[in-house]
Specification:
Layout: E1 7-13, H1 16-32, E2 37-42, H2 45-49, H3 66-69, H4 73-90, E3 94-98, H5 101-113, E4 120-123, H6 135-142, E5 145-148, H7 154-157, E6 163-166, H8 181-187, E7 196-200, H9 205-225, E8 230-235, H10 240-246, E9 254-258, H11 260-269, E10 272-276, H12 280-286, E11 291-295, H13 299-308, H14 316-321, E12 328-330, H15 336-348, H16 350-364, H17 375-388
Helix pairs in contact: 1-17, 4-5, 5-6, 8-11, 9-15
Length: 389
């Protein structure tokens, strides 16, 4: 590579959480190379807001659950072939797949079979500690290096000869703890003393499909006790239309916001939250918003999840603490009665609220909350080191 030539990093991020992660990696790489880097691949709205041009709409890959995935298989397989062909044609200096291991694994496998010599890195270790432990061996076959968000993940992959770097969780470097709650309330005409509940029904269509109806009933029940309360729903473009349609007749005023800045401002303004299981739960902990976790799937996927998923908890805060700091209501336990009762406790019991906030933040320290070097900066260093070697 000549001194003036910009290195090409091929990024693949298949859903909103990966899109945000990849966008931060882009910024860190630009900073570390003094701008001598360019990007190609697949990404979402956050990456595209930073000038990224996606090969196709990444929302096509954001499917989850057996009943949802099966009809999508022909389309996804075609996208895998298209992606591999695009990588071969562009000849990047490195390929970095971000999260979404089901899609990423197949792209990496296809690329590896062609013996291109292009370094292949995966960012976000598959949760082999929860289910499908055999994926640890698969990772070792298809990629050259793995960047892990959690400190204990390396031990699952190293026996297969895979180089694993713990870089820390990106939530600790985001703006979740820096929102402007006062400005949010003022901009949305929500009085300072009015209770504000944050509702987060997920970023996938399969999540909102099952969670929005139960959240609607929960809000209807809470409206009897809190008739003046407002609801805010931070969402993403992939499900924004469905969210707006589903919440048009809710029992309390609903404010729907998109974008990272508005989401974090909304967090800062909220008194409590009901959230789908996922990365957003860590953002709420960073923002010091007490919350509970909810998750619901179609009956077939629920039946399989009960039998395949190992481990006591779904929420990362609870997993790292090895105890239930945050209440989880999953699958059959995700009922209106459970969610409403927990929401009332989070809204009214100050001692209960503060205990959760304190314990959750102590867990975040394990993910790098006190580290002066950001996770994205560490990840960028791994990418550059891999290319050099």
């Amino acid at each position: 590579m000549t001194q003036d030539k910009k290195m090409l990093v091929y990024l693949i991020a298949g859903e909103p959480s990966g899109d945000l992660l990849a966008s931060r990696l882009m910024k860190a790489l630009i900073k570390k190379t003094n701008g001598k880097v360019r990007f190609a691949g697949i990404g979402g709205e956050t990456m595209m807001a930073n000038g990224f041009e996606s090969l196709f709409d990444s929302s096509e890959l954001a499917v989850m659950g057996v009943a949802e995935v099966i009809p999508s298989i022909p389309r996804i397989m075609a996208r895998i072939r298209q992606t591999v062909d695009d990588i071969v044609a562009k000849k990047p200096d490195v390929v970095v797949t971000v999260d979404s291991w089901s899609f990423s694994a197949r792209v990496n496998k296809g690329l590896r079979s062609l013996n291109t010599g292009i370094p292949q890195i995966h960012y976000v270790a598959p949760q082999v500690w929860a289910w499908k432990k055999r994926r640890a061996r698969t990772c070792g076959r298809y990629i050259d290096r793995l960047m892990a968000l959690l400190p204990y993940e390396a031990k699952y992959f190293q026996p297969y000869g895979l180089k694993v770097d713990f870089v820390g969780h990106p939530v600790v470097e985001g703006g979740a703890a820096k929102g402007d709650g006062t400005a949010f309330r003022k901009g949305n005409d929500i009085p300072e003393q009015t209770k504000l509940l944050c509702v987060l029904p997920g970023s996938r269509r399969s999540e909102t499909k099952y969670l929005l109806p139960i959240f609607k009933e929960t809000i209807a029940g809470l409206a009897e006790k809190y008739p003046e309360m407002h609801i805010v729903i931070p969402t993403v473009v992939t499900v924004e239309k469905a969210v707006r349609e589903a919440t048009a007749d809710w029992a309390l005023p609903v404010h729907i916001v998109t974008g990272e800045t508005d989401r974090y401002d909304a967090f800062a303004a909220c008194d409590a939250a009901l959230a789908a299981s996922g990365t957003v739960a860590l953002e709420l902990a960073m923002a010091k918003v007490p919350y509970t976790i909810a998750y619901k799937m179609n009956p077939i996927s629920s039946w399989l999840a009960r039998r395949l998923v190992k481990g006591k908890f779904a929420n990362l805060v609870n997993i790292l603490a090895d105890r239930e700091i945050v209440k989880e209501y999953l699958l059959e336990d995700c009922t209106v009665e459970n969610l409403a009762a927990e929401a009332e406790k989070l809204l009214d019991d100050e001692e209960y609220r503060q205990a959760q906030l304190r314990d959750a933040f102590n867990v975040l320290k394990l993910l790098g909350a006190d580290d002066p070097v950001s996770p994205s900066s560490k990840a960028a260093a791994v990418v550059l080191d891999t290319m050099e070697k």
